[in-house]
Amino acid sequence: KENKMAAIEDECRGPPEPLLRRYFTKYYAIDVQGREGEEQCVFQHSNKICMICVSPSHPLMKEDILQVTFKIGKNDRADNPVSGKGKKGAQHLTPRSPLCLVHCKGDPERKYCLYSCIKGYLVEVNERLLDNPSLIQKQPLGEGYIALVLPKLGDGAATCNALVSEEKYEELKKKDV
Q1: φ and ψ at residue 3, rounded to 5 degrees
Q2: pLDDT tens for residues 105-142?
Q3: Which of 16, 28, 33, 75 is in the most buried spot, having the most CB atoms within 10 Å?
Q4: DSSP 88
Q5: Cβ neighbourhood burial of 52 (10 Å; 0-12, 13-18, 19+)
């Protein structure tokens, strides 16, 4: 009984599917930074804030994840003191800005860099990934999200123009099969 309850609780974590479908529009960044198959997902809320996730088809979903780090070069994405309505202190991101590195088991160790995919301000990174990196695989479109990014005021509608809609993504995937 305990294992069954744990499985049910695991399924219920993260934003429920009806909530995501009702308030978020799903977009995909395909072959991010020219890396074939490395796809990411962007959920844009009706208030324009975006949740950056790993696509379930990303190659790292088949890897043994060892660690997630938000420190990339001189930038530590986890050190992002944001305050107030205007999100003062937030780090400015471009679509090519790295958000984190995912270290995977292998010889040599494999690393995947995950990117912002959109222009905006970093509101928060998912610090739960530091202690539980497997969340990326268990719930990539929920509790395993990478970061929340707020597009610049006025850029909200244009933010996802370079991304592919969910419908277009499904069409492309059917053609690849």
Answers
A1: -65, -40
A2: 987 889 999 999 999 999 999 999 999 999 999 999 88
A3: 28
A4: B
A5: buried
Cis previous bond, 108, omega within 30: yes
Burial of 57 (C-beta count, 10 Å sphere; 0-12/13-18/19+): middle
| pLDDT one-digit tens code per residue, 156-168 | 566 777 899 888 9
145 Cβ contact list (under 8 Å, min separation 6): 51, 52, 53, 126
Residue 145 gets the label, from left (phi > 0), alpha (psi -120 to 50) or beta, of: beta
Q: Is the dihedral of CA 163, 166, 168, 169 positive or negative?
A: positive
C-beta of residue 106 within 8 angstroms of C-beta of residue 99 = no
Residues of the chain with pLDDT under 70: 1-21, 155-158, 177
Name the DSSP class of 39: -
Whether 89 and 83 have beta carbons less than 8 Å apart is answered as: yes
Provide the phi-psi class of 65: left if phi over 0, else alpha when psi is between -120 and 50, else beta. beta
pTM confidence score? 0.84
